[in-house]
Amino acid sequence: MDPATWRTYLVTQSSHSAGRDTPTVVSAALAGGVDVVQLREKGTDARRRYRLGGRLRELTESAGVPLVVNDRIDLAAAVDADGVHLGQSDLPIEVARDRLGPDAVIGRSASTVEEAEAAEVAGADYLGVGAVYGTESKDVADAKDGIGPERVGTVANAVDIPVIGIGGVDAENATSVVDAGAAGVAVISAITAADDPQAAAGTIGEVVADAR
Q1: Predicted structure pTM score
Q2: How much is the pLDDT for 135?
Q3: What are the boundaries of each domain within the chain?
Q4: Which of 14, 79, 93, 130 could form a disulfide with 166 if both were Cys (CB 3.0 to 4.6 A apart)?
Q5: Which residues are catalytic?
Q6: What topology does CATH give the domain 3-211?
Q7: In the chain, pLDDT over 90 holds for what percent of residues?
Q8: CA 65 to CA 174: how far, in whole Å?
Protein backbone atom coordinates (compact mmCIF):
# COMPACT_ATOMS: atom_id res chain seq x y z
CA MET A 1 0.00 0.00 0.00
CA ASP A 2 2.08 2.85 -1.36
CA PRO A 3 0.40 6.28 -1.63
CA ALA A 4 2.92 7.19 -4.31
CA THR A 5 1.08 4.79 -6.64
CA TRP A 6 -2.37 6.29 -6.04
CA ARG A 7 -3.79 8.05 -9.08
CA THR A 8 -7.46 8.57 -8.18
CA TYR A 9 -8.52 8.96 -4.56
CA LEU A 10 -12.29 8.93 -4.01
CA VAL A 11 -13.70 10.88 -1.07
CA THR A 12 -17.29 9.92 -0.24
CA GLN A 13 -20.08 12.38 0.49
CA SER A 14 -23.69 11.31 0.05
CA SER A 15 -24.92 14.91 -0.07
CA HIS A 16 -22.93 15.32 -3.31
CA SER A 17 -24.00 12.02 -4.87
CA ALA A 18 -27.03 13.01 -6.96
CA GLY A 19 -29.46 11.19 -4.69
CA ARG A 20 -27.60 7.87 -4.81
CA ASP A 21 -26.38 6.04 -1.72
CA THR A 22 -22.67 5.92 -1.01
CA PRO A 23 -22.17 2.13 -1.46
CA THR A 24 -23.68 2.40 -4.95
CA VAL A 25 -21.32 5.22 -5.88
CA VAL A 26 -18.30 3.49 -4.35
CA SER A 27 -19.07 0.23 -6.15
CA ALA A 28 -19.19 2.08 -9.46
CA ALA A 29 -16.02 4.03 -8.72
CA LEU A 30 -14.17 0.85 -7.77
CA ALA A 31 -15.25 -0.68 -11.06
CA GLY A 32 -13.86 2.43 -12.72
CA GLY A 33 -10.47 1.89 -11.13
CA VAL A 34 -10.11 4.25 -8.15
CA ASP A 35 -7.01 3.43 -6.12
CA VAL A 36 -8.22 4.40 -2.63
CA VAL A 37 -11.52 5.29 -0.95
CA GLN A 38 -11.92 7.72 1.93
CA LEU A 39 -15.02 7.47 4.12
CA ARG A 40 -15.91 11.11 4.78
CA GLU A 41 -19.68 11.69 5.06
CA LYS A 42 -19.66 14.98 6.97
CA GLY A 43 -22.98 15.65 8.65
CA THR A 44 -23.62 11.96 9.35
CA ASP A 45 -23.59 10.69 12.93
CA ALA A 46 -20.95 8.26 14.13
CA ARG A 47 -23.28 5.25 14.33
CA ARG A 48 -24.39 5.63 10.72
CA ARG A 49 -20.81 6.19 9.58
CA TYR A 50 -19.79 3.03 11.42
CA ARG A 51 -22.42 0.98 9.61
CA LEU A 52 -21.49 2.57 6.30
CA GLY A 53 -17.81 2.00 7.01
CA GLY A 54 -18.43 -1.70 7.49
CA ARG A 55 -20.10 -1.91 4.09
CA LEU A 56 -17.33 0.08 2.40
CA ARG A 57 -14.73 -2.15 4.07
CA GLU A 58 -16.38 -5.15 2.40
CA LEU A 59 -16.43 -3.43 -0.99
CA THR A 60 -12.86 -2.13 -0.88
CA GLU A 61 -11.44 -5.35 0.52
CA SER A 62 -13.09 -7.31 -2.28
CA ALA A 63 -11.56 -4.90 -4.81
CA GLY A 64 -8.13 -4.92 -3.17
CA VAL A 65 -8.30 -1.16 -2.58
CA PRO A 66 -7.36 0.64 0.66
CA LEU A 67 -10.05 2.26 2.83
CA VAL A 68 -9.18 5.42 4.75
CA VAL A 69 -11.42 7.17 7.27
CA ASN A 70 -11.62 10.95 7.46
CA ASP A 71 -10.79 12.54 10.83
CA ARG A 72 -11.86 9.71 13.16
CA ILE A 73 -9.09 7.45 14.44
CA ASP A 74 -11.58 5.49 16.56
CA LEU A 75 -13.85 4.86 13.60
CA ALA A 76 -10.92 3.78 11.44
CA ALA A 77 -10.02 1.18 14.06
CA ALA A 78 -13.64 0.08 14.51
CA VAL A 79 -14.18 -0.72 10.82
CA ASP A 80 -10.67 -2.15 10.34
CA ALA A 81 -9.78 0.54 7.82
CA ASP A 82 -6.30 0.71 6.34
CA GLY A 83 -5.73 4.17 7.74
CA VAL A 84 -6.97 7.64 8.53
CA HIS A 85 -6.80 11.09 6.99
CA LEU A 86 -6.38 13.94 9.46
CA GLY A 87 -7.06 17.64 9.06
CA GLN A 88 -4.98 20.35 10.68
CA SER A 89 -7.37 20.56 13.64
CA ASP A 90 -7.61 16.80 14.20
CA LEU A 91 -5.61 14.69 16.65
CA PRO A 92 -1.83 14.51 16.13
CA ILE A 93 -0.34 12.09 13.66
CA GLU A 94 1.60 10.46 16.49
CA VAL A 95 -1.66 9.56 18.25
CA ALA A 96 -3.03 7.96 15.08
CA ARG A 97 0.15 5.94 14.67
CA ASP A 98 0.01 4.77 18.26
CA ARG A 99 -3.64 3.73 17.97
CA LEU A 100 -3.60 2.24 14.48
CA GLY A 101 -0.13 0.72 14.37
CA PRO A 102 2.95 0.93 12.16
CA ASP A 103 1.29 -0.46 9.04
CA ALA A 104 -1.58 2.04 8.94
CA VAL A 105 -1.51 4.69 6.23
CA ILE A 106 -1.86 8.17 7.71
CA GLY A 107 -2.54 11.25 5.66
CA ARG A 108 -2.60 14.91 6.67
CA SER A 109 -4.23 17.87 4.98
CA ALA A 110 -1.85 20.72 4.19
CA SER A 111 -2.00 23.94 2.22
CA THR A 112 1.39 25.44 3.08
CA VAL A 113 4.99 24.28 3.09
CA GLU A 114 5.12 24.71 6.87
CA GLU A 115 2.13 22.43 7.41
CA ALA A 116 3.53 19.89 4.98
CA GLU A 117 6.98 19.77 6.55
CA ALA A 118 5.51 19.41 10.03
CA ALA A 119 3.33 16.52 8.87
CA GLU A 120 6.27 14.75 7.30
CA VAL A 121 8.35 15.09 10.46
CA ALA A 122 5.43 13.73 12.50
CA GLY A 123 5.27 10.62 10.35
CA ALA A 124 2.54 11.22 7.77
CA ASP A 125 2.61 8.84 4.82
CA TYR A 126 1.07 11.29 2.35
CA LEU A 127 -0.41 14.78 2.13
CA GLY A 128 -3.74 15.99 0.80
CA VAL A 129 -2.89 19.44 -0.57
CA GLY A 130 -5.55 21.99 -1.47
CA ALA A 131 -8.06 23.20 -2.05
CA VAL A 132 -6.40 23.45 -5.47
CA TYR A 133 -9.17 25.05 -7.52
CA GLY A 134 -11.61 25.94 -4.78
CA THR A 135 -14.33 23.68 -3.50
CA GLU A 136 -17.99 23.67 -2.55
CA SER A 137 -17.79 20.18 -1.07
CA LYS A 138 -15.87 21.22 2.04
CA ASP A 139 -15.78 24.20 4.39
CA VAL A 140 -12.39 25.74 3.64
CA ALA A 141 -10.97 29.03 4.87
CA ASP A 142 -10.57 31.63 2.11
CA ALA A 143 -6.79 31.61 2.51
CA LYS A 144 -6.73 27.88 1.78
CA ASP A 145 -9.30 27.81 -1.02
CA GLY A 146 -8.05 27.91 -4.58
CA ILE A 147 -4.33 27.73 -3.83
CA GLY A 148 -3.57 26.64 -7.41
CA PRO A 149 -1.27 24.00 -8.92
CA GLU A 150 1.74 26.24 -8.26
CA ARG A 151 1.32 25.81 -4.49
CA VAL A 152 0.92 22.08 -4.97
CA GLY A 153 4.28 22.06 -6.72
CA THR A 154 5.91 24.15 -4.02
CA VAL A 155 4.70 21.76 -1.34
CA ALA A 156 5.65 18.67 -3.34
CA ASN A 157 9.17 20.01 -3.80
CA ALA A 158 9.52 20.66 -0.07
CA VAL A 159 8.77 17.11 1.13
CA ASP A 160 9.67 13.53 0.28
CA ILE A 161 6.24 12.01 0.88
CA PRO A 162 3.57 11.79 -1.84
CA VAL A 163 1.20 14.70 -2.43
CA ILE A 164 -2.41 14.21 -3.49
CA GLY A 165 -4.08 17.31 -4.93
CA ILE A 166 -7.65 17.97 -3.78
CA GLY A 167 -10.29 20.62 -4.27
CA GLY A 168 -12.21 21.25 -7.47
CA VAL A 169 -10.17 18.66 -9.37
CA ASP A 170 -11.77 16.93 -12.36
CA ALA A 171 -10.78 15.34 -15.66
CA GLU A 172 -10.31 18.76 -17.26
CA ASN A 173 -7.73 20.10 -14.80
CA ALA A 174 -6.13 17.02 -13.21
CA THR A 175 -3.20 17.13 -15.64
CA SER A 176 -2.08 20.50 -14.30
CA VAL A 177 -2.12 19.18 -10.74
CA VAL A 178 0.00 16.15 -11.61
CA ASP A 179 2.33 18.20 -13.81
CA ALA A 180 2.92 20.42 -10.77
CA GLY A 181 4.18 17.46 -8.75
CA ALA A 182 1.19 15.62 -7.28
CA ALA A 183 1.24 11.84 -7.36
CA GLY A 184 -2.51 11.78 -7.86
CA VAL A 185 -5.76 13.60 -7.25
CA ALA A 186 -8.54 13.30 -4.68
CA VAL A 187 -12.06 13.79 -5.96
CA ILE A 188 -15.53 14.15 -4.48
CA SER A 189 -18.16 15.63 -6.80
CA ALA A 190 -16.39 14.91 -10.10
CA ILE A 191 -17.09 11.24 -9.40
CA THR A 192 -19.91 11.13 -6.85
CA ALA A 193 -22.17 13.56 -8.74
CA ALA A 194 -21.32 12.30 -12.22
CA ASP A 195 -24.05 10.74 -14.36
CA ASP A 196 -21.82 7.67 -14.62
CA PRO A 197 -19.42 7.44 -11.63
CA GLN A 198 -17.67 4.40 -13.11
CA ALA A 199 -16.87 6.20 -16.34
CA ALA A 200 -15.88 9.37 -14.49
CA ALA A 201 -13.47 7.46 -12.26
CA GLY A 202 -11.98 5.70 -15.26
CA THR A 203 -11.49 8.93 -17.19
CA ILE A 204 -9.81 10.74 -14.31
CA GLY A 205 -7.55 7.75 -13.70
CA GLU A 206 -6.51 7.73 -17.34
CA VAL A 207 -5.81 11.47 -17.29
CA VAL A 208 -3.60 11.12 -14.23
CA ALA A 209 -1.81 8.07 -15.64
CA ASP A 210 -1.07 9.93 -18.86
CA ALA A 211 0.22 12.96 -16.94
CA ARG A 212 2.49 10.81 -14.81
Answers
A1: 0.93
A2: 60
A3: 3-211
A4: 130
A5: 40, 109, 138
A6: TIM Barrel (3.20.20)
A7: 90
A8: 21
